[in-house]
Design a protein that fits this description.
Layout lengths: L1 H26 L3 H4 L1 H12 L38 H10 L13 H13 L1
The protein binds heme C.
Length: 122
């Protein structure tokens, strides 16, 4: 009986040690999250920067599409009559516009979210 109890408490110790190591692992930033905004920037450079500036205001931009300089700090989107919001930007990226191409087949939801995190950081 005593050895059964010892065995059970040993099992309990092992399980709680495992649980501890799992929760410790969860707290560490995942490798791909560390450079999250850099990933967003690369996605932006690969897909958007040909047509949308981000580091210069509209007045200085010579690109085809509107500049996204400090987009999320503005009162309104450059063209759409609404406050900048993630859902709208996401829809526009997925489905494009009259001229802008759609990216639904090229970028997945996670990539679009990362890209918008980058836009929001500027
Ligand atoms: C080939 C050029 C081109 C590319 C590439 C492009 N866009 Fe656009 N985008 C435009 C043009 C032109 C408009 C405005 C006219 C329209 O909607 O077609 C626009 C409009 C937008 C709008 C709406 C702005 C508003 O005020 O309503 C958003 C948001 C947007 N683009 C985001 C992006 C993002 C993010 C990317 C990269 C994934 C991207 N675009 C890639 C040309 C482009």
């Amino acid at each position: 009986m005593r050895s059964l109890f010892a065995a059970l408490s040993f099992v309990a110790v092992v399980i709680s040690a495992l649980a501890l190591s799992v929760s410790a692992a969860e707290k560490k930033p995942l490798p791909w999250e560390k450079n999250h905004l850099q990933v967003g920037q690369s996605l932006y450079r690969a897909n958007c920067v040909v047509c949308h500036d981000i580091d210069r205001p509209q007045a200085e931009s010579k690109k085809f599409g509107p500049s996204f300089y400090q987009l999320f700090r503005r009162d309104k989107m450059p063209l759409a009559n609404m406050k900048p919001n993630r859902d709208y930007v996401k829809l526009r990226v997925k489905f494009g516009g009259a001229i802008m191409p759609a990216f639904a087949k090229k970028l997945n939801d996670t990539e679009i979210d990362t890209l918008i995190d980058y836009l929001q950081s500027k």
